[in-house]
Protein backbone atom coordinates (compact mmCIF):
# COMPACT_ATOMS: atom_id res chain seq x y z
CA UNK A 1 0.00 0.00 0.00
CA UNK A 2 1.63 3.29 -1.01
CA UNK A 3 2.19 5.96 1.59
CA UNK A 4 -0.57 8.56 1.40
CA UNK A 5 0.24 12.10 2.47
CA UNK A 6 -2.52 14.72 2.69
CA UNK A 7 -1.29 18.27 2.21
CA UNK A 8 -3.31 21.48 2.42
CA UNK A 9 -2.97 24.19 -0.23
CA UNK A 10 -3.10 27.91 0.46
CA UNK A 11 -3.26 29.66 -2.92
CA UNK A 12 -2.40 33.13 -1.60
CA UNK A 13 0.61 31.80 0.28
CA UNK A 14 1.68 29.79 -2.76
CA UNK A 15 1.49 32.79 -5.10
CA UNK A 16 3.27 35.24 -2.80
CA UNK A 17 6.10 32.75 -2.30
CA UNK A 18 6.77 32.43 -6.04
CA UNK A 19 10.02 34.19 -6.94
CA UNK A 20 11.17 35.41 -10.34
CA UNK A 21 14.35 33.48 -11.07
CA UNK A 22 15.11 34.28 -14.71
CA UNK A 23 14.14 36.71 -17.44
CA UNK A 24 11.80 35.88 -20.31
CA UNK A 25 12.85 39.10 -22.03
CA UNK A 26 16.57 38.33 -21.80
CA UNK A 27 16.45 34.58 -22.42
CA UNK A 28 13.67 34.29 -24.98
CA UNK A 29 12.60 37.58 -26.53
CA UNK A 30 16.13 38.63 -27.48
CA UNK A 31 16.60 35.37 -29.37
CA UNK A 32 13.23 35.72 -31.09
CA UNK A 33 14.13 39.26 -32.14
CA UNK A 34 17.34 37.96 -33.69
CA UNK A 35 15.26 35.65 -35.92
CA UNK A 36 13.31 38.49 -37.57
CA UNK A 37 15.74 38.70 -40.47
CA UNK A 38 15.00 35.12 -41.47
CA UNK A 39 11.44 34.43 -40.29
CA UNK A 40 8.15 36.22 -39.77
CA UNK A 41 7.61 36.98 -36.08
CA UNK A 42 4.19 37.84 -34.72
CA UNK A 43 2.75 38.67 -31.34
CA UNK A 44 -0.33 36.50 -30.90
CA UNK A 45 -1.39 37.73 -27.48
CA UNK A 46 -0.15 38.49 -24.00
CA UNK A 47 -0.64 37.22 -20.50
CA UNK A 48 -0.78 39.46 -17.45
CA UNK A 49 -0.30 38.52 -13.82
CA UNK A 50 0.11 40.82 -10.83
CA UNK A 51 0.27 43.85 -13.11
CA UNK A 52 3.09 42.47 -15.26
CA UNK A 53 2.36 41.73 -18.94
CA UNK A 54 4.27 39.23 -21.02
CA UNK A 55 3.84 39.32 -24.81
CA UNK A 56 3.42 35.98 -26.56
CA UNK A 57 5.31 35.45 -29.81
CA UNK A 58 5.24 32.89 -32.59
CA UNK A 59 7.70 32.44 -35.45
CA UNK A 60 6.53 31.51 -38.97
CA UNK A 61 8.21 30.45 -42.19
CA UNK A 62 9.11 33.57 -44.16
CA UNK A 63 7.59 32.45 -47.47
CA UNK A 64 4.37 30.90 -46.19
CA UNK A 65 2.73 28.81 -48.92
CA UNK A 66 -0.85 27.66 -48.39
CA UNK A 67 -0.19 24.69 -50.70
CA UNK A 68 2.27 23.21 -48.16
CA UNK A 69 1.46 21.27 -44.99
CA UNK A 70 1.84 22.96 -41.62
CA UNK A 71 4.21 21.84 -38.89
CA UNK A 72 3.45 23.16 -35.39
CA UNK A 73 6.20 23.18 -32.75
CA UNK A 74 5.38 24.29 -29.20
CA UNK A 75 7.69 24.74 -26.22
CA UNK A 76 7.38 26.02 -22.71
CA UNK A 77 3.74 25.06 -22.20
CA UNK A 78 5.16 24.12 -18.82
CA UNK A 79 7.49 27.05 -18.33
CA UNK A 80 9.83 25.32 -15.93
CA UNK A 81 10.74 22.71 -18.56
CA UNK A 82 13.74 24.60 -19.83
CA UNK A 83 14.87 22.55 -22.82
CA UNK A 84 11.38 22.77 -24.29
CA UNK A 85 11.87 26.53 -24.66
CA UNK A 86 15.53 26.51 -25.60
CA UNK A 87 15.18 23.48 -27.83
CA UNK A 88 12.46 25.23 -29.85
CA UNK A 89 14.65 28.33 -30.19
CA UNK A 90 17.68 26.23 -31.11
CA UNK A 91 15.66 24.45 -33.79
CA UNK A 92 14.71 27.81 -35.29
CA UNK A 93 18.27 29.10 -35.14
CA UNK A 94 20.01 26.00 -36.51
CA UNK A 95 17.66 23.71 -38.43
CA UNK A 96 14.36 25.32 -39.43
CA UNK A 97 15.56 26.86 -42.67
CA UNK A 98 16.46 23.43 -44.08
CA UNK A 99 12.70 22.80 -44.39
CA UNK A 100 12.00 25.95 -46.42
CA UNK A 101 9.77 25.21 -49.39
CA UNK A 102 8.69 21.86 -47.97
CA UNK A 103 6.54 22.81 -44.98
CA UNK A 104 5.09 25.88 -43.32
CA UNK A 105 6.59 26.12 -39.85
CA UNK A 106 4.76 27.71 -36.94
CA UNK A 107 6.77 27.70 -33.72
CA UNK A 108 5.63 29.02 -30.33
CA UNK A 109 8.84 28.73 -28.29
CA UNK A 110 7.58 29.82 -24.86
CA UNK A 111 3.85 29.42 -24.34
CA UNK A 112 3.97 30.17 -20.58
CA UNK A 113 6.38 33.06 -19.89
CA UNK A 114 5.34 33.69 -16.25
CA UNK A 115 5.98 30.04 -15.48
CA UNK A 116 9.30 30.23 -17.36
CA UNK A 117 10.45 33.13 -15.21
CA UNK A 118 9.30 31.57 -11.96
CA UNK A 119 10.32 27.99 -12.90
CA UNK A 120 6.80 26.70 -12.34
CA UNK A 121 4.53 24.12 -13.92
CA UNK A 122 1.35 26.14 -13.35
CA UNK A 123 0.55 29.70 -14.32
CA UNK A 124 0.02 32.34 -11.64
CA UNK A 125 -3.61 31.24 -11.24
CA UNK A 126 -2.37 27.78 -10.18
CA UNK A 127 -3.74 26.35 -13.43
CA UNK A 128 -1.82 23.82 -15.52
CA UNK A 129 -1.82 25.12 -19.11
CA UNK A 130 -1.17 21.60 -20.37
CA UNK A 131 -4.50 20.44 -19.01
CA UNK A 132 -6.33 23.48 -20.37
CA UNK A 133 -6.50 23.09 -24.15
CA UNK A 134 -10.27 22.91 -24.01
CA UNK A 135 -13.22 25.05 -25.02
CA UNK A 136 -13.43 28.18 -22.85
CA UNK A 137 -9.97 27.47 -21.50
CA UNK A 138 -9.33 28.78 -17.98
CA UNK A 139 -5.63 29.36 -18.82
CA UNK A 140 -4.69 32.57 -20.63
CA UNK A 141 -1.70 30.87 -22.24
CA UNK A 142 -3.69 27.97 -23.67
CA UNK A 143 -6.53 30.16 -24.92
CA UNK A 144 -4.12 32.47 -26.75
CA UNK A 145 -2.34 29.59 -28.47
CA UNK A 146 -5.63 28.02 -29.52
CA UNK A 147 -6.71 31.31 -31.10
CA UNK A 148 -3.43 31.44 -33.02
CA UNK A 149 -3.81 27.91 -34.37
CA UNK A 150 -7.56 27.96 -35.04
CA UNK A 151 -7.30 29.22 -38.66
CA UNK A 152 -4.98 26.29 -39.46
CA UNK A 153 -7.26 23.52 -38.25
CA UNK A 154 -7.36 20.72 -40.83
CA UNK A 155 -4.03 21.75 -42.34
CA UNK A 156 -1.57 20.72 -39.62
CA UNK A 157 0.39 17.62 -40.62
CA UNK A 158 2.54 17.43 -37.48
CA UNK A 159 2.43 18.87 -33.98
CA UNK A 160 5.35 18.21 -31.65
CA UNK A 161 5.14 19.61 -28.12
CA UNK A 162 8.45 19.87 -26.23
CA UNK A 163 8.48 18.96 -22.54
CA UNK A 164 10.65 17.64 -19.71
CA UNK A 165 10.09 15.30 -16.79
CA UNK A 166 12.09 16.56 -13.81
CA UNK A 167 12.85 15.49 -10.26
CA UNK A 168 10.82 18.50 -9.12
CA UNK A 169 7.74 16.82 -10.60
CA UNK A 170 7.95 14.41 -7.69
CA UNK A 171 9.28 16.73 -4.98
CA UNK A 172 7.22 19.86 -5.69
CA UNK A 173 4.64 19.79 -8.47
CA UNK A 174 2.80 16.52 -7.90
CA UNK A 175 2.48 17.20 -4.13
CA UNK A 176 1.19 20.70 -4.93
CA UNK A 177 -1.33 19.27 -7.37
CA UNK A 178 -2.60 16.81 -4.79
CA UNK A 179 -2.87 19.60 -2.22
CA UNK A 180 -4.66 21.96 -4.62
CA UNK A 181 -7.19 19.26 -5.51
CA UNK A 182 -7.62 18.01 -1.94
CA UNK A 183 -6.30 14.55 -2.75
CA UNK A 184 -3.66 12.39 -1.08
CA UNK A 185 -0.19 12.47 -2.59
CA UNK A 186 0.98 9.05 -3.75
CA UNK A 187 4.76 9.03 -4.33
CA UNK A 188 5.98 7.82 -7.71
CA UNK A 189 9.24 7.48 -9.60
CA UNK A 190 10.93 9.63 -12.23
CA UNK A 191 12.35 7.76 -15.26
CA UNK A 192 15.99 8.31 -16.16
CA UNK A 193 16.02 9.24 -19.82
CA UNK A 194 14.08 10.58 -22.78
CA UNK A 195 10.64 9.24 -23.67
CA UNK A 196 7.63 10.17 -25.77
CA UNK A 197 3.95 10.45 -24.94
CA UNK A 198 1.80 9.65 -27.96
CA UNK A 199 -1.95 9.94 -28.41
CA UNK A 200 -3.77 6.75 -27.50
CA UNK A 201 -6.44 7.60 -30.09
CA UNK A 202 -3.76 7.94 -32.81
CA UNK A 203 -0.56 6.25 -31.58
CA UNK A 204 1.50 6.25 -34.79
CA UNK A 205 4.07 3.96 -33.16
CA UNK A 206 6.38 3.80 -36.19
CA UNK A 207 6.55 7.59 -36.09
CA UNK A 208 7.30 7.56 -32.35
CA UNK A 209 10.04 4.96 -32.92
CA UNK A 210 11.66 7.10 -35.61
CA UNK A 211 11.78 10.08 -33.25
CA UNK A 212 13.26 7.99 -30.43
CA UNK A 213 15.86 6.51 -32.78
CA UNK A 214 17.10 9.99 -33.66
CA UNK A 215 17.15 11.14 -30.04
CA UNK A 216 19.05 8.01 -28.96
CA UNK A 217 22.04 9.37 -30.88
CA UNK A 218 22.03 12.38 -28.54
CA UNK A 219 20.88 11.05 -25.16
CA UNK A 220 19.59 7.83 -23.64
CA UNK A 221 16.01 6.56 -23.87
CA UNK A 222 14.21 5.90 -20.59
CA UNK A 223 13.66 2.25 -19.68
CA UNK A 224 10.39 1.02 -18.25
CA UNK A 225 10.15 0.30 -14.53
CA UNK A 226 9.61 -3.11 -12.97
CA UNK A 227 5.89 -2.83 -13.78
CA UNK A 228 6.55 -2.16 -17.46
CA UNK A 229 5.51 1.47 -17.00
CA UNK A 230 6.84 5.01 -17.23
CA UNK A 231 5.28 7.54 -14.80
CA UNK A 232 2.44 5.11 -14.15
CA UNK A 233 1.53 4.48 -17.80
CA UNK A 234 2.08 1.26 -19.72
CA UNK A 235 5.06 1.30 -22.09
CA UNK A 236 3.64 0.35 -25.50
CA UNK A 237 6.99 0.50 -27.35
CA UNK A 238 10.51 1.30 -26.14
CA UNK A 239 10.39 4.77 -24.64
CA UNK A 240 6.74 5.37 -25.59
CA UNK A 241 3.62 5.77 -23.46
CA UNK A 242 0.16 6.97 -24.51
CA UNK A 243 -2.31 9.49 -23.11
CA UNK A 244 -5.75 10.51 -24.35
CA UNK A 245 -4.69 13.96 -25.53
CA UNK A 246 -8.09 15.56 -26.02
CA UNK A 247 -9.70 14.09 -22.91
CA UNK A 248 -6.86 15.48 -20.79
CA UNK A 249 -6.79 18.88 -22.51
CA UNK A 250 -3.18 18.46 -23.63
CA UNK A 251 -1.48 20.91 -25.96
CA UNK A 252 -0.58 18.13 -28.41
CA UNK A 253 -4.29 17.38 -28.86
CA UNK A 254 -5.28 20.89 -29.96
CA UNK A 255 -5.19 19.98 -33.65
CA UNK A 256 -6.25 16.93 -35.64
CA UNK A 257 -2.73 16.53 -37.03
CA UNK A 258 -1.90 13.13 -38.48
CA UNK A 259 1.35 12.99 -36.48
CA UNK A 260 1.54 14.16 -32.88
CA UNK A 261 3.91 13.57 -30.02
CA UNK A 262 5.00 15.07 -26.71
CA UNK A 263 8.70 14.85 -25.90
CA UNK A 264 9.90 14.26 -22.36
CA UNK A 265 13.55 15.05 -21.69
CA UNK A 266 15.09 14.23 -18.28
CA UNK A 267 17.43 17.14 -17.40
CA UNK A 268 18.27 15.84 -13.91
CA UNK A 269 19.99 12.72 -15.19
CA UNK A 270 23.69 12.41 -14.32
CA UNK A 271 24.07 11.13 -17.88
CA UNK A 272 22.73 14.25 -19.63
CA UNK A 273 23.92 17.85 -19.80
CA UNK A 274 21.74 20.90 -20.52
CA UNK A 275 23.30 21.05 -23.98
CA UNK A 276 22.32 17.44 -24.62
CA UNK A 277 18.78 18.14 -23.47
CA UNK A 278 18.43 21.02 -25.92
CA UNK A 279 20.00 18.96 -28.69
CA UNK A 280 17.63 16.08 -27.95
CA UNK A 281 14.66 18.39 -28.48
CA UNK A 282 16.07 19.58 -31.82
CA UNK A 283 16.77 15.99 -32.89
CA UNK A 284 13.20 15.06 -32.02
CA UNK A 285 11.72 17.95 -34.03
CA UNK A 286 13.85 17.23 -37.09
CA UNK A 287 13.16 13.49 -36.98
CA UNK A 288 9.44 14.13 -36.59
CA UNK A 289 9.35 16.45 -39.60
CA UNK A 290 11.47 14.11 -41.71
CA UNK A 291 9.18 11.18 -40.95
CA UNK A 292 5.99 13.16 -41.56
CA UNK A 293 7.24 14.38 -44.93
CA UNK A 294 8.08 10.87 -46.12
CA UNK A 295 5.01 9.05 -44.81
UniProtKB/TrEMBL annotation:
Entry's Gene Ontology BP terms = proteolysis
Top-level division of the source organism's lineage: Bacteria
SUPFAM superfamilies in the record: Zn-dependent exopeptidases
Indicate the segments annotated as coiled coil, or none if absent: none
Q: Where is the Peptidase M14 domain?
A: 20-295
Q: Which Gene3D superfamilies match?
A: Zn peptidases
* InterPro entries xrefs: DUF2817 (IPR021259), Peptidase_M14 (IPR000834)
One MF annotation (Gene Ontology) recorded for this entry: zinc ion binding
Q: Per the similarity annotation, which family is this?
A: Belongs to the peptidase M14 family.
Q: Per its record, how is this protein called by name?
A: Peptidase
Amino acid sequence: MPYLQKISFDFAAWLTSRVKLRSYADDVLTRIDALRARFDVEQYGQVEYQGVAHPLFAVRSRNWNDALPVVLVTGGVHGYETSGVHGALMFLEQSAETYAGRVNLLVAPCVSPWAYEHIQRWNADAIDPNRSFVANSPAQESAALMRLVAPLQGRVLLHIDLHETTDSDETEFRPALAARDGKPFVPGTIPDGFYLCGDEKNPQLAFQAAVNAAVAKVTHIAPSDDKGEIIGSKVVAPGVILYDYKALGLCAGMTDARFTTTTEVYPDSPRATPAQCNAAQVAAVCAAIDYALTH
